[in-house]
């Protein structure tokens, strides 16, 4: 029963991450292009992700602690998928709010 509940949480987290990713990806098409001196378009999402990593230190530390905890597991049964997706959900949620300001 516990494995089923853990699987449900992982699946929900996975779906939530893809929903956020879909929003960000669909907004990309309408983004105002930032132009460099050499006329190459710049994707503001990368810069925003870098800025949004700082407020997400708690999920990052949880992920790193999990990774360290399961470091020696050779069976492959232990994983940190939930913590990984929690971290990127935090980053994507922060990016999504800032990314819309770059729309035309």
UniProtKB/TrEMBL annotation:
Domain of life: Eukaryota
Membrane topology, record value: Peripheral membrane protein
Predominant place of localization: mitochondrion
GO biological process: mitochondrial electron transport, ubiquinol to cytochrome c
Residue ranges constituting the Ubiquinol-cytochrome C reductase hinge domain according to the UniProt record: 43-104
InterPro entries: Cyt_b-c1_6, Ubol_cytC_Rdtase_hinge_dom, Ubol_cytC_Rdtase_hinge_dom_sf
Pfam families cross-referenced by the UniProt entry: UCR_hinge (PF02320)
Localization annotation: Mitochondrion inner membrane
Alphabetized UniProt keyword annotations: Disulfide bond, Electron transport, Membrane, Mitochondrion, Mitochondrion inner membrane, Respiratory chain, Transport
GO CC field: mitochondrial inner membrane
Family per similarity comment: Belongs to the UQCRH/QCR6 family.
Designated name of the protein: Complex III subunit VI
Naturally occurring in which organism (per UniProt): Sesamum angolense
């Amino acid at each position: 029963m516990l494995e089923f509940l853990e699987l449900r949480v992982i699946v929900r987290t996975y779906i939530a991450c893809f929903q956020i990713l879909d929003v960000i990806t669909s907004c990309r098409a309408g983004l105002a292009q930032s132009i460099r001196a050499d006329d190459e378009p710049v994707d503001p999402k990368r810069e925003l992700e870098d800025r949004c990593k700082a407020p997400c230190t708690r999920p990052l530390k949880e992920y790193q602690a999990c990774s360290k905890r399961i470091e020696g597991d050779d069976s492959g049964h232990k994983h940190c998928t939930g913590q990984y997706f929690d971290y990127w959900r935090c980053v994507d949620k922060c990016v999504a709010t800032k990314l819309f300001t770059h729309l035309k």
